[in-house]
Amino acid sequence: MRTPLALALALIGLGVASAASAAPADFDPLEKVNRPIFWFNDKLDVYLLEPIAKGWDFVVPDRAQGAISDVFDNARFPIDFTNELLQGKPANAGKMLGRFLVNSTLGVGGLFDVAKAAGWPGREEDFGQTLGVWGIRNGPYLMLPVLGPSTFRDACGRAVDSPMRVWPFFVGTIPSIAISGTEVVNWRARNIESIRDLKKDAFDYYSLVRNAYLSNREAEVADHAAPEQDGEKSDSGPEGDLYFTDDEE
Fold first, then answer.
1. Is the Cα torsion angle 193, 199, 202, 205 positive or negative in sign?
2. Largest pairwise CA distance in the chain
3. What is the per-residue DSSP string for 2-39?
4. In whole angstroms, what is the distance from residue 185 CA to residue 177 CA?
5. Measuring CA to CA, which residue among 188, 186, 191 is closest to residue 64?
6. Residue 172: is it exposed, middle or buried by C-beta count within 10 angstroms (0-12/13-18/19+)?
7. How far apart are CA 117 and CA 58, in angstroms?
8. In the 3-class helix/strand/coil scheme, how is 146-166 assigned residue by residue?
9. What sign for the dihedral angle of Cα 75, 79, 81, 84?
């Protein structure tokens, strides 16, 4: 039932996004609602997620954190591969398939990014980007509870991508929540310093996150919409839901 619901949400989002086609890049008519949600998300991070992440960072070595991140990147394969095909990028989809096979075997289930060392860097694709490639505008900016920054278009994209996640089909609800929680905590632990610096230097943290998120998403769509050149594209990097920052190396 999730897939028809996701498609229905996507259709609703497309209509709203089309109506906002002439809107500026920082279109935020829901700011009065978004800011309290952002405040809640930030407090949730300060009092719950960050302390857990600090403990995780103390216990888990950096190299192990990197390996865990690689496993989750590898598990994104169905989402990335499907969206490359939907964007009309068969060459890139083929490379993603090759990356997945190499990292799942020689990389021991994705613990090691062997493909990257061989010259096949990873890249993330999602249905929000695919809608953008198809010409669908962002629509209003949204701050989602817990999940962080989004837009009408990207929220619909999340609904379509969600059924393609790997582990919920093989484990129960509680283990699935634990796996997702591990991914979030590990990501947060790898970005403790960069997020702290963002908060310290920002005049208006809400506006910084919003503008960075929207600029990043537009850049990703513009890059992915460009004609392929022998299937080569630069890696857009991971997208941090709450703070828009890449994993620290």
1. positive
2. 50
3. HHHHHHHHHHHHHHHHHHTTT--TT--TTHHHHHHHHH
4. 12
5. 186
6. exposed
7. 28
8. CCEEEEHHHHHHHHHHHHHCC
9. negative
Question: Which amino acid, residue 75?
Answer: A
What are 221-240's pLDDT values in tens digits?
886 454 444 444 333 333 44
CA distance linking residue 14 with residue 19, whole number of Å: 9
The structure tokens listed for 72 are 């989750």
Read off the pLDDT of residues 102-130 as tens digits, 9 standing for 90 and up: 999 998 888 889 988 888 888 899 999 99
pTM of this prediction exceeds 0.85: no
Place of tokens 């059924």: 163
Contacts of 216 (CB under 8 A, 6+ apart): 239, 244
Could you report the per-residue pLDDT of 8-57, keeping only the tens digit for each?
333 334 444 443 344 456 679 999 999 999 999 999 999 999 999 999 99
Distances (CA, A) of 45 to 34, 41, 185: 16, 6, 10
Residue type for 214, please?
A: L
Burial class from Cβ neighbours inside 10 Å (0-12, 13-18, 19+) for residue 24 reads: exposed
Backbone angles phi, psi at 151, to 5 degrees: -140, 175
Token pair 């230097």 in the structure block, residue: 201
Tokens of 221: 């769509």
